[in-house]
Fold these 4 entries.
Entry 1:
Amino acid sequence: MKILLMLLLMNSLPAMGSVKSTTSVHIHSTGEVSGHRILLGEIASISSLSPRSEKILSEIDLGESPGDGKVVQFTASDISQKLQSHVDEFKGVQVTIPESIIIRQREKSITATGVKEKIEDIVRSLLPDPTWEYEVSEVTLAQVVESLKITGYQIIAPLNRPKGNFSFELIAQEHAAPRRFWVTAKVKYFARTAILTRQIAAHTRFQPSDLNWERKEVTYLLDIPATKSEVATGLAKMTLMPGTMLLRSHFEREMALKFGEEVDLLAGDEQLLVATKGIAQQNAFIGDTVKVKSLATNKIVDGVVTGRGVVNVRY
């Protein structure tokens, strides 16, 4: 036997976002949900003259789903109580509820598209510089992997940045038991690189006219292309010829701080920058984290060397 309910607001004024047209909701005795929440539209047939009304009702959240591949059972009373918290949306709506409702969460399967997205997340997290671009292609799964019905899976991040044809470890949770597989993908990297237009002598700085910035594939480089800030502040370690792609190994580190010398301490951001003086407690190069004694507070603070005699600190 089914229960027929007519949910009416005691207040005669329509609520904002409420369903205003003649509408009916027929909840099925069995249903499947795909996400982590039970949405009314996945377990019921909703009929309305207004597409907006259907959308409002379809997106009503009835609580957590039972979990991948699992089942939960509700009584008509259970569902009625859940609907009562959405009384505004049900003004004048005819709702049919069976005595018992069984809801199952769909089991997942592993697809090449899903695996590619997880690999892209890993590749993105391992980029040496956020300006780098990457391309993941040719994702290959064994047939047995695609046929699995699972409750979840993950791709294990490798210790080193993947490049070229690479095998990724996949752990699939099949019911209660984890299973290990390997999937392959091709990973490429691209970066804006500085290409010299003339010969540069050792121990000299670079000028903007000395180079062109070009997009290059850098997948198999053993070194990292120099960034614009590194080029702007660095010195050539050796004589470099025209056509050379500038890499980090082409630069010599310039001593920017010496123990005991007075330095500028900068704190804040572009909107509010506070400058004080301090005494360096060690030798350091640009980019190093150092300890400096603040002359204003007489305390030792940590900071990053950003230029000759300049340290950015956080108090």
Entry 2:
Amino acid sequence: MVSAKICVSLVPFVNGHGNIVWPRAWWDGGDVNMYSGHSGDNGAAMWFVDNVVIPTTQTQTNAVSNTDPMRTYYDINIHKIDPRYPNYPIDIYTNHAWRAPGTTQVDSPCGSYGGNPYGCWTDTTHTKHEECSDDPGNVAFGPDARDYYGNWTNIPNTRWKAGQQVEVAWQVVANHGGGYSYRLCPRSSELSEECFQAHVLDFVGDKQWFQFGYNRASRAMFGDVPAKRTTKGTHPKGSMWTRNPTPACQGPGSGNANERGGGNQFEYPNAGGTYSCSPDSYKGGSWEGKYSGPQFEPHGGYPGKYAKYGIYTYGFGNNQGQNTGGPLLYSMVDLVQVPKNLKPGQYVLSQRYDCEQTLQVWNSCADITILPADSTESDDALIPDGPAGIDLPPFTLEVEV
């Protein structure tokens, strides 16, 4: 696909859903998305595909049972709590993308703005496509990021060496559970999903970290986070994926903040106030008194030692503009392995985030230069140290002696 400058106005919604923040993505020429609370700025987390499921010939291979450690959203007997849906299955997340990672077809490995490049469905046969509803999380007829490439300025380029272990990071703005992988494609090739699938990167080790902005020391707030990784039933076969380590709040969710554990949070961070997933955060919604707490035990506990500061490692995040509290303020950092035999040159990195709660796959891309393994040039293997972007609570640094 050839990139070009195209005249399309992108409405800068602030409520995206999930995107890579390190390496810096194509749209982050202003270096804003890594900072706490800014991962969705400039429409950064609006690149995805909507209303998709695994292929009809594909069996579910991941997160199927409630005891599966890869599960991020659990069975909801919605008949009991909302009789309007008598025909819904008990497992309302059946055949969503995370149930067979990598198999769901996407329009673009770098995402389409608003998720509905052909318009939103307006009939039950899914043949009539028009403008989307007033939900700011969906936009009709948005461009493919690959085509829109020429419209961004100061596009970042990150330098890695062949054979290095390098840090990658993403933030979730609206937490749909599921999991993710990172892939490379040579710039000289067509930037197709097939090309990226041919170069999936392995994760390194069984730990990951929560980091606030560029403040590397802030990882000490929650320490090493045990990573849940899988190669079972993934596509391409044997490709490595990691579960989203941040649990959303209990319940099936909804379009309203107070129906997904994000209500009544009016500060940012919401220090001393209602914290996500708490009973107060559901007040005024359909699930008030029915749900509270996160989908699974979060690293750092619930509510956690920093909850009084408005900082916690669980929750849905995006509050649809209904109030200002509740967004997730940290990046999720992993190590990935750059192949030793990778030919030096220009590449594109794609992060693919397969959701479990929603019928969506989120993508974002970044330019990468691969240097020879023995190069003496400087590289960007580690996220550079810097400010967090918010005032952090007191925390202790453990120093090895």
Entry 3:
Amino acid sequence: MIQYFVARLGESHGPYTIEALKDQNITQDTLIWYEGLIDWKRAEDIEEIRMTLFTPISVPENPPAEKPSNSKWLMPADGIVITVFVIMFLILLTLGFFLNPKEAEYADKVQEAQEHNPEQSEPSSKAESESAVEPAQTDIPTIRIGAQDWMTKNLNVSTFRNGDVIPQAKSTEEWEAFWETEEPAWCYYENDPANGEKYGKLYNWYAVRDSRGLAPRGFHVPSDGEWTVLTDYLGGADIAGYKMKTKSGWYLDGTSTNSSGFSGLPGGYRNYNGTFYNEGLYGYWWSSSESYSFFAWFRYLHYNDGKVFRFDNPKGNGFSVRCLRD
């Protein structure tokens, strides 16, 4: 039986059976995805859904109105307040302490994202505490984007930070077994080591969040919030993808600038059932943030779009990992 996922406000929900979709207030314009589709489709364009949920004269519901801005201006009460404010402003300006509002807002976002990243929590064991004195790796290529230092390549390690081996899943049965037992695993796309040289390894989310540490010393897997800091700095999720994708290597080359230096490549992914999809078309990267019990947040780039898409997917899927310096 086909399992459907529904996109609402940039987030993926599901899976649902065709019967369960009847209770989800689906319209003709609702975006739907199921296993085997390359991209999301309008519900009206999927025959089974159209025949089951819609009549020929059904009308899509109106889109929600844009959320009004909550921004406010602080108005002084009287002339004395204005005078004091001007004097303080001139003093701060003279001393060089007055920040550009956008810079201050961006700095606050960076700090908030770092504080809420579970990858940077206190060591959970004596062994972790003792190993914390080891120096961070400084020979890994990175690029400064805003206030963040990102690796310029996808992760390609086969051991955790403490030296323990991360299991490799070569067969479909092995990959699916690691998902069912919620254990860490990695693979090459199509089990071809040549793809590892190009795209790095694909990891399930259980490897991402393993307490032994997937990222090298001095780095961590970015949280959902830290991914948002990146896309906000690059002008917002609607256009940041153009600045993050390499100029070549995609199905349609020449649509991106890679002006950020992120150098995102279309490494595809491995479904939790072991099937590989979308190499050359899409690039997928895990965050360290869980959405709920069996799903976690990730970002993906599309070969013919400048957006950076944010969705959650089953933790058993295999995505690329890009690390951020602590």
Entry 4:
Amino acid sequence: MPVRDLLRLNAIFSGAAGLTLFILNRPLADVFGLRRGVVAAIGVGLMIYAADLTVAAVRNGLHRTLVLLFATADAAWVLAAIAILVAWPNALSIAGRLALAATIAPVAAFAALQFRGARRLA
């Protein structure tokens, strides 16, 4: 898959998740065992990330460093999610833990594919 298409797909995934968390912060906070503000803030952060991915995907001259930055950010999400699930298992409800765990595989796939795509841009 071309790197630009990968960034667009990541933007759609991140933006949809962010918008859902932001709009539904009240019920999701209750389900996940978090404060509304935390859920809304994660949603806003994901929407900003999605916007950055979109800008990178459509602008002229895609830079390897930028793709590496996105790949690293996704890898950091995966590591942070695992750390939360292992070190603070009671920080989230069961539904919250399941939802967070469900993000690990797709985000890890984005990270791996973006690292590979960045190598091709070199």
